[in-house]
Amino acid sequence: MKSSERSFARRIDLTSLQLFVAVCELGSIGRAAEREFIAASAVSKRLSDLEAAVDTALLYRHSRGVTLTPAGESLLHHARTVLFGLERMQGELSEYAEGVRGHVRMHANISAIVQFLPEDLGAFARAHSQIKIDLQEHLSPDVLHAVREGAADLGLCNVPATAEGELQSRPYRTDRLVLVVPQGHALQAREAVQFDEVLDWDIVGLHAGSSISLAMRQAAAQAGRPLRQRIQVTGLDAMCRMIDNGLGVGLLPDRAFALMQGVGRLAAVPLDEPWALRALRLVARDFDALPVTARLLVEHLTPPTISLPT
């Protein structure tokens, strides 16, 4: 950190930032003073000192209260970010005090969460009961973005070729896409089906940004035919219910379909396309730089290397 940056950091104190945010939220120094149990004159002094520290006006003061200057708008955004980060830090450190020895932030796509993670994370939690895992479901592009920006330690998703090299990745699991149709459908008796045949039917799909939707759109474009995706849902159970009620056909990972049995009167037909076999991968900015707790989870989730006989 440069000396000028250190000097600026020393001129800003957290109490003044908290009071500044309170004044901005309430639009009045007096109301902020009442809420924070401090004299209005002390709040006003803190704000003046803060303006002196940043060397610019932050508030327009008038008879009805205060409003933000452009510089004040910018400081409010950064102040909230700093204070939110401190709250997260306090929460995580309090967990250590209560015996939690680790904390891993993970984002994963719906395919990984539905098919594999419940069993894998359950086994990890039983082996490492004092490590807390925060898991969020996101589309694959959003998982990659979160890891890239540091919002997640680890990601689990389908990694497109265009993203290779931006992040480190390791193999996790594979799945295969199947065509899900209502029982009695014309394609049910087929041993396998190619995607250009699927394009003859209305399609029930997941969110437009999902890896399956992206793959379908690309395959339809290569075939020079429109994709009749009439309905989009956010969950696999909703997708199966739509298909069961005759609203179209859809693509699902094979194990996810097996777990959805009982949702409706459905059948699965293997999809005969190279892109139907998909790889789910662990992603991180730098696996070696991860905290010990995250590296333990990576080791648990990475499949063992099978040694072939010589």
Explain the layout of strands and helices.
Blueprint lengths: L2 H9 L2 H13 L2 H8 L3 H15 L4 E4 L2 E4 L1 H28 L4 E7 L1 H6 L1 H11 L3 E7 L2 H10 L4 E5 L9 E15 L12 H4 L4 E4 L4 H13 L5 E5 L2 H9 L5 E4 H6 L6 E5 L6 E8 L7 H10 L9
Parallel strand pairs: 3-4, 3-5, 7-8
Antiparallel strand pairs: 1-2, 5-11, 6-9, 6-10, 6-11
Helix pairs in contact: 2-3, 2-4, 2-5, 3-4
Detailed description of the structure:
The radius of gyration is 27 Å and the shape is elongated. The strands form three sheets. Strands 3, 4, 5, 6, 9, 10 and 11 form a seven-stranded mixed sheet that branches. The chain has a two-stranded antiparallel sheet with strand order 1-2. Helix content is 46%, strand content 22%. It folds into three domains: 89 residues, Arc Repressor Mutant, subunit A (Orthogonal Bundle), CATH 1.10.10.10; 94 residues, 3-Layer(aba) Sandwich (D-Maltodextrin-Binding Protein, domain 2); 104 residues, D-Maltodextrin-Binding Protein, domain 2, CATH 3.40.190. It has 13 helices and eleven strands. The C terminus is likely disordered.
